[in-house]
Hints:
The protein is α/β, with parallel strands linked by helices. The chain contains five helices and seven strands; from the N terminus they run H-H-E-H-E-H-E-E-E-E-E-H.
Amino acid sequence: YVFDASTFEIWVPLLNGGRVVVAPPGVLEARVLAELVERHGVTALFLTTALFNVVAETDPAAFAGLRLVAAGGEKATPDVMRRVAAAAPGTRVLHVYGPTETTTFATRHPVDADTAGVPPIGRPLDGTRLYVLDGSLGLVPRGVVGELYVSGRGVARGYQGRPALTAGRFVADP
């Protein structure tokens, strides 16, 4: 089992001249996170929304010292994200979205202390396109409900050894 976010956590720093810091075994508490950031000079972090919320509710300033913290994997909790942005003003807080098939995330939306309402999934990353399609895979007009489709460089080519599932889930870029 591999969590798709590990690709971001491992390869982004290594391919950009950084390093990977592995947290000690056990529960990642706010105090432990803050110590890791300070001791190792951690600059960027991706957490699932649930873990982000637990750390942030304990001590939103635990993220201070980071340049970037991204949270995703489930619906954002806006008040918690705003609290972190207020407690760690030098830290860019991002709500990110992306199904497993896009390898980590496909969109991002910055959240600051003044962000109102639930953060949207945001804008697509470079090389990524988003479409809202109807049941016949046609584009729907702005404001009309449909299903979100993601295309671009980060989308998988299919499911390994599962051609029928791939044919049913992966469609041509409209």
